[in-house]
Design brief:
alpha/beta; Rossmann fold; two-stranded antiparallel sheet; globular
Amino acid sequence: MSDLQRIIWLASYPKSGNTWMRSLLAHYFMPAGQAPDINNLRQFTTGDTRQDFFDAANGAPFRGQGLEDWMRVRGPALRLIAASKPDHHFVKTHCQTIRVFDQDVIPPEVTAAAIYLIRNPFDLAPSFARHQSADIDTAVDRMCNPETLMGSATGIYDVLGRWDDHITAWTSAPGLPRHVIRYEDMLARPAETIRTMLEKFFKVRVDSPKLARAIKATEFSQMKKQEETHGFFEKPTGMESFFAKGQAGVWREDLTPAQVGRIREEFRPVLEKWYPEMLDETERFAAGAGVPDTSA
């Protein structure tokens, strides 16, 4: 085992609960009153797009001209990130576990484990559209495109690819200790979902009052209020609000039947595995039947 196998990845497609998970873990593991706000999460976690680590790994300010430059420096930058703390620590990523230019984007030599977060693609699409400052059809195009990237002005990338490929890559990566959490389960049953992760994956004894305080402190309304008061430096340029709705089921108001039908068609095998309970309703919606009125 490599001495640098210290990174516990907090991995997800964008807008799938990564910021929420990072904040919640900070509030649980850090001493009371010391957990950072949303703009200071790097006090507890870091990310794999940190400019300072790329500069250090490059030996000069990093200004990449494409994926090849990025991959040349990414490995050394990740080794610096892994070595930045003496034990296991959390690192955010939106990248896939793939190889680019015959190199691992998520190198085993710096990896201890991963928490992988999934959000259903019907709710993800309008949220991702806001994240990308795009319309929903364009966002769905990007979710369906194996070449989709996000990148900084200095040439540091997130290799996203297709939504379904992202999930398949992370949930089937050989030899990777992982725990998979659905965003919808965090919304519906936060205490149960996080307790299961802490007890079964991290093998820690859960402090129930502490967990309750962490969940309360990181409710969507609290994080949205922080953004409204102080802004959020991770918000992409042009995005009006990072914390917009934070709900499950918004697709019913935000998507057209054609958009729902396309998402079903593109991602059917992964939906069958991870969201089988959505198949019937989305089929009716795509066919133009709409959502049944359950108010009566």
